[in-house]
Amino acid sequence: MIEEQAQVVRVESGEVWVETQRKSSCGSCAANRGCGTAVLSKVLGNRTTPIRVICDVPVGVGDQVVIAIREEALVRGSLAVYMVPLLGVLLGAMLGEWMAPQLGTAVEMSTIVGGITGMLIGLFWLRLFSRKIGSSPLYQPVVVKRVETLNQI
Fold first, then answer.
1. Please, what's the b/e burial string for 138-152 (b: 16 or more CB within 10 A of its CB; e: otherwise)?
2. pLDDT (tens digit per residue) in 40-86
3. CA distance 111 to 103
4. 33: exposed, middle or buried (C-beta count within 10 Å: 0-12, 13-18, 19+)?
5. In the chain, how many domains are there?
6. Does the predicted model carry a pTM greater than 0.90?
7. Domain range for 120
8. Could you tell me where the beta strands, DSSP code E, fall in 13-113?
């Protein structure tokens, strides 16, 4: 399980809404000034992200909790998000190049149009896939435990 600390902002029956702090993956290395990730992090700032989480632990608004998601869900989701549009671009471009002589168009233009069309089809499939898995327990984060703070001890 991949864990992250979050703060409860709303409590509902069987689930809670939490906010996590968006973090850069770096920022402390020597290449900080020239690093694209660090620059992007500074531009976007430290925004919070509200997330709906399944919760069986008694918590209240303002509590700090540890949320977790299965590694398998992260790997599958990452593969879908990155690979499906990329494969769409590649297959669409190859199909466009193959069809150019039959259509009597320039190969470059047909390849570009095919690649863009393939990417759009991949993104559309991804949208349908995300709706389908949205209710799957595998892809749902859960509250693992409530974090005891010094004020609560």
1. ebbbbbbebeeeeee
2. 667 666 677 788 898 888 999 999 999 999 999 989 989 999 999 99
3. 12
4. exposed
5. 1
6. no
7. 2-152
8. 15-21, 48-54, 64-69
